[in-house]
Each structure stands twice: as structure tokens, then as C-alpha cells.
Amino acid sequence: KQEVTQIPAALSVPEGENLVLNCSFTDSAIYNLQWFRQDPGKGLTSLLLIQSSQREQTSGRLNASLDKSSGRSTLYIAASQPGDSATYLCAVTNTGNQFYFGTGTSLTVIP
Amino acid sequence: KAGVTQTPRYLIKTRGQQVTLSCSPISGHRSVSWYQQTPGQGLQFLFEYFSETQRNKGNFPGRFSGRQFSNSRSEMNVSTLELGDSALYLCASSLEDWNTEAFFGQGTRLTVV
Q1: Which residues of chain A have pLDDT under 70?
Q2: Which residue among A34, A96, A101 places its CB closest to the CB of B43?
Q3: What are the tens digits of pLDDT across the range B84-94?
Q4: Chain B nearest C-alpha distance from A50 (Å)
Q5: What angle do CA A5, A11, A17 make, to 5 degrees?
Q6: I need a surface site. Which of A7, A54, B18, B53 has the fewest CB within 10 A?
């Protein structure tokens, strides 16, 4: 069974700092890896999708990389802002659209 | 374009009752998945529908069921509610059956008392 782990569980940084969130998964036979953010009590907002044949994706200040063979992904956030404060979740699919989620990293950006 | 719409946003039910939650996917999306989110267990997969067929089912008791209509709208039903069913239920829609981006709704917050 696919297991997804995210480290660290919580992170607090001053505004303007660059940061890296980590995600690891046990079964490398994935279709996709997707990064989401979740604000308290809200749904999930898609940030980046990396298909299994890709190595990285970029959107604005966000860059996600994927190393399928080692079962790892990182989400890099440049020049963090207070509005980036949220829980960040990574999820992988092995079949169809069944996502396996990590437990998330709770990010606080201090003004 | 409109996102994924889940109704209702909040529900309070009594133990033993049943409940039906609704999800309208993004127009043109044919895959709908359901997830349960609790503080203790995180996000857990319930089931996925594609073109009105259930393709995958998570490890939940038979009290949890769902269906998808020809317009891709989906409903999930929970019968004989238990206190432990209190959770945020999230629906995701995708364009095709794999390798495409998933978009989530705002969720339905179910409280069982």
C-alpha cells in the first residue's frame, strides 16, 4: 500500500525566506504527484501537478521537483509571504484518480 | 469557469440518521472522487467514479456509498451515522481517468451528535 510522508510537520519562517517542503512515497510506480495547499476549514487548492514522466514544474514563486526512482518530491517556495501560511499537502496516484495524501506541512510565515 | 461545487457546506445530524452529500464537478470533467478528512486520520480515499461507474473504493464500511449521474454530478450517502463519521468530506473532479490535474471543492462539514 502506498504511504506518503511529509517532513517537517510544521515550519515557521520569517517573511522573505526561501523554503523547501519535502514529500516521500514508498511505491515509485506513480502516475502523478500533485501539491495542494489548504487553508483552515477550507478545501484543497491545486498548486502544481507533476506527471510521472516529468522532473519538475514551476508556477510563479513555486517550484516542485520529482525523483520517482527515489520516491521523493520537494516543493520550493521563494521569497515567502504571510499569505503563504497554510497547510501544504502532497498526494500521489497509482491508479486512476485515487490519491494517497501525506499528513501535510503546516507553514507559518511571520511578517 | 465554475469550480467544484459541494452542497451543503455544513450539516448537523444525529447518530443513526443518514445523510446525502452532493458534488457538481467542473463542466466537462468525468471523474469524481470523494475523500474524508479528520484530524486523526488525515485525508482518506472513499471512492472514485468515472462515467457513472465506480472504479475504486477505499477501505470504508458499506454504510458509505455513492453514485454518479449521467451529467457527472455525484452523491455520496452515509447511513446509520456514527459519531466517528464527523469529518470534512471533500470531492475532487478530474478531466479524464488518469494523469490529469484534480480540483477540489470546499467540502461539506458533517457533524454527528
Answers
A1: none
A2: A101
A3: 999 999 999 99
A4: 9
A5: 120
A6: B53
